[in-house]
Every structure is written in structure tokens, then in C-alpha cells.
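Course assignment 3, question 2. Fill in each field.
Student: A.L.
Task: Predict the tertiary structure for the chain below.
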Amino acid sequence: QVQLVESGGGLVQAGGSLRLSCAASGRTFSSYAMGWFRQAPGKEREFVAAISWSGGRISYANSVKGRFTISRDNAKNTVYLQMNSLEPEDTAVYYCAAGVVAGALNTPRTSSEYAYWGQGTQVTVSS
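Answer field:
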């Protein structure tokens, strides 16, 4: 079992930055691939970024590539999402997720591949 708690959301102007954190419980954090997803009002949950359990591979949605950076600190059981150059279209509830996947370089991009989810943190970008 893994419990995930996101933090760092808030209200920011377009062009600004936020850093989301996701703290995980449990001693096996380093064995999980970690992902960030987001869901805007009236829209489906969508993939944002993922990092393999080894940290050796990272994957991004095209919409955030070059603006967002995912990273993990296995010693702190924490995964981060640094978001720069935020746009109003980035407004959503952001969720972190943990999944047990085969392969040290696997970066799952679909929500069904993740077994554990946080409660979400709201990010609002004003124009």
C-alpha cells in the first residue's frame, strides 16, 4: 500500500511558476513509477508527466514539454512537478499516482497503469 499526498497548488498569474510535491508513505517508494495527471472542469483526466522508478527515463505530454519538469527524490519518498511558464489552459486539479510496472525505464502514460492516487491539488492560472 502507498498513500500519496500532494501539495504546492495555488493561484498564479499566467507566466508564473509553481512546484508541486507528492509525498509517499511506505518503504517501497523507489520501486514505483510515478506520474502526474490533471483534470480540468468538464474534461477527462489527462497525462502530464511520468518518471520511471529508476529515475532513468522521463516522459511528458506534448502540451507541457519544455515548461514542466518531473523529478523524484527516493530518499525523501517524494516526487515533484516544477511548472514554469504557466498558462490558463494549465488550470486543473493535479494528481500524482504510483504504479508498479516492469522495467526500470517504464514511464506509464495511462491512468489504468497506476494503482495508487493522491487526493489532488488545485492549480489555477489567471490570465
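Instructor remarks: The first strand starts at residue 4 and ends at 7. The radius of gyration is 13 Å.
Grade: pending
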